[in-house]
Structure to design on (300 residues):
């Protein structure tokens, strides 16, 4: 690790410690989420003033499919090092298939022996949350241990890949495929948006990939469609979470994580999803009070 990187990390850490709470927004969000039937954590940062809101922001939550962001990081690091190529073709074998896949896993529908570019695997992993693509890419990135070492080297102490990672079997039983905190995942999205992860060009590619989200009926549905948003959500029965960076006119980042949810339904009216939409529209109106855009609930 270079001295320059360590110096920048020191500056970032020192700055984070100096951040101030947006007390007005803190009160609004605390009121909004106080009756949620489950465990919830939120971290919001105004990327203009760097004021923050933190509600159980350092509590560990399951990532569910948000673990695909650290996997993206692992792949892009390999590409930066010249060990993989973004447009490199790889071949599907039966051992790469995720047995519990559903209709959303387009890669699993490919024929054995068929080739696909790494770039398309990344698109499917992030946009449609394809699980076969995710596990395939995790292997190409060097596995969970290597991705976790990379996360640790970048200062992410809690965010980890648990799935298919030796030594993490017990913790996987508790948190599933991966784990993080709202603060750490928001920090990762902020670092990507500020072109500080791996290299400026690599960060920009990651940002573009995270901006191509198929699942847009949650937080994204409350933000005007002509505003760039980098987003990833993760859902299992007892946990519905989402992290999103909104590029402007007033940029901000938000990470919402839940666990132990009482409502485990999969309809649009699910309590956690409904709350996510309410948080998202509150933030959009708070940071953009002159906006006249009104979300269309029919698109949920």
């Amino acid at each position: 690790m270079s001295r320059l990187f360590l110096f920048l990390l020191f500056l970032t850490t020192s700055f984070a410690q100096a951040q101030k709470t947006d007390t007005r927004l803190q009160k609004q969000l605390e009121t909004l989420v106080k009756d949620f039937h489950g465990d919830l954590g939120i971290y919001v940062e105004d990327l203009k003033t760097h004021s923050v809101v933190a509600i159980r922001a350092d509590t560990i939550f399951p990532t569910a499919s948000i673990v695909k962001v650290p996997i993206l990081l692992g792949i892009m690091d390999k590409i930066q090092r010249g060990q993989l190529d973004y447009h490199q073709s790889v071949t599907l074998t039966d051992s790469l298939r995720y047995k519990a896949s559903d209709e959303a896993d387009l890669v699993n529908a490919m024929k054995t022996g068929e080739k696909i570019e790494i770039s398309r695997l990344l698109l499917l992993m992030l946009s449609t949350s394809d699980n076969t693509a995710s596990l395939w890419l995790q292997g190409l990135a060097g596995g969970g241990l290597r991705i976790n070492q990379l996360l640790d080297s970048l200062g992410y102490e809690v965010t980890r890949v648990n799935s298919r990672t030796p030594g993490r079997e017990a913790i996987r039983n508790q948190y599933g495929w991966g784990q993080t905190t709202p603060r750490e995942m928001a920090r990762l999205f902020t670092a990507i948006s500020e072109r500080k992860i791996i290299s400026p060009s690599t960060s920009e590619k990651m940002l573009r990939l995270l901006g191509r989200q198929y699942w847009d009926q949650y937080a994204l549905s409350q933000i005007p469609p002509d505003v760039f948003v980098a987003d990833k959500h993760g859902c299992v029965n007892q946990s519905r979470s989402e992290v999103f960076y909104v590029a402007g006119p007033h940029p901000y980042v938000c990470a919402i994580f839940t666990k132990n949810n009482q409502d485990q339904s999969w309809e649009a009216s699910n309590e956690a999803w409904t709350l996510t939409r309410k948080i998202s529209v509150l933030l959009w109106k708070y940071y953009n009070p002159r906006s006249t855009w009104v979300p269309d609930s029919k698109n949920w």
Q: What stands out?
A: Residues 18-59+181-300 form a domain with the Beta-lactamase fold (CATH 3.40.710.10). The CA atoms of residues 285 and 291 lie 7 Å apart. Confidence is low (pLDDT under 50) at residues 1-8, 13-17. The chain has two domains: 18-59+181-300, 64-176.
